[in-house]
Write a structure and sequence with these properties.
Helix 3 packs across helix 4 and helix 4 runs parallel beside helix 6. The strands form two sheets. A six-stranded parallel beta sheet has the order 5-4-1-6-7-8, with helices on both faces. Strands 2-3 form a two-stranded antiparallel sheet. The protein is elongated, with a radius of gyration of 17 Å. It folds into two domains: 138 residues, HAD superfamily/HAD-like (Rossmann fold, 3-Layer(aba) Sandwich), CATH 3.40.50; 70 residues. With 220 residues, the protein is of the alpha/beta class. The protein contains nine helices and eight strands. The two termini are 22 Å apart.
Length: 220
């Protein structure tokens, strides 16, 4: 796909694209394991490979071979969501360099949105913790609408009448889902994943910001 001057909106992934919160997520998981009587302990690195995937996939991967046959995944996911709602507003994560300043500049030229496979309050917690809520026009998460990420991209595009959207993420799954949604994909090389078939790539958020600011100025 061609990145042209008609881009009017930027849709962002969260984890691995805007911030790193894997250590905080691990703390949430470990508390939930303890509360559920499970002798499992993980680190942020254990979660890194699963970033961007639906929660059910992550739970299956983390618990494979470590829980009994009567393990109730649905109940654990519910408990994990409650623990995350309780802990993440305080734990938060670390924005990648240049993200806050970049979002501020980009929001003056584009409509910004977030589309993530996180839990129902994950995007709200992110925006509140980082003080970035005023930069975004809208958001949708898997926890709010449990469909593939491509479906939630299409929801945002239709809901807000977007004519030139691009999605920014850091994994192959992000790339594949973006193309299923029919829009171009910008690959954040600095994130958690690797990717082939992207439409454009950036080594840091400052370069991403500069590119899209210049693209907008070229159109004027």
């Amino acid at each position: 796909m061609i990145i042209d001057k008609n881009i009017d909106s930027l849709l962002f992934d969260m984890d691995g694209t805007l911030w790193n919160a894997t250590d905080s997520y691990a703390a949430v998981w470990n508390r939930c394991f303890a509360d559920c009587g499970l002798d499992i302990h993980i680190t942020g690195d254990d979660l890194t490979a699963y970033m961007g995937k639906p929660i059910e996939v992550i739970v299956d991967g983390i618990t494979m071979g470590r829980v009994s046959a009567d393990f109730n995944r649905h109940a654990f996911v519910e408990a994990l969501g409650l623990a995350e709602d309780d802990m993440m507003p305080q734990l938060g994560g670390t924005l990648y360099p240049g993200v806050y300043e970049g979002l501020k500049k980009l929001s003056q030229h584009y409509r910004l949105f977030m589309v993530s496979n996180c839990g129902r309050n994950g995007l709200h917690n992110f925006m509140q913790f980082t003080g970035t809520a005023h930069f975004f026009s809208g958001s949708i998460s898997y926890g709010e609408n449990p469909v593939p990420k491509s479906g939630n991209m299409q929801y945002i595009i239709k809901q807000y009448g977007l004519n030139g959207a691009i999605y920014v993420g850091d994994t192959q799954g992000d790339c594949d889902e973006t193309h299923r949604a029919g829009i171009p994909f910008a690959y954040a090389r600095y994130g958690f994943g690797s990717c082939q078939g992207y439409d454009i790539a950036f080594d840091n958020f400052a370069d991403f910001t500069q590119y899209f600011i210049e693209l907008k100025h070229e159109k004027l």
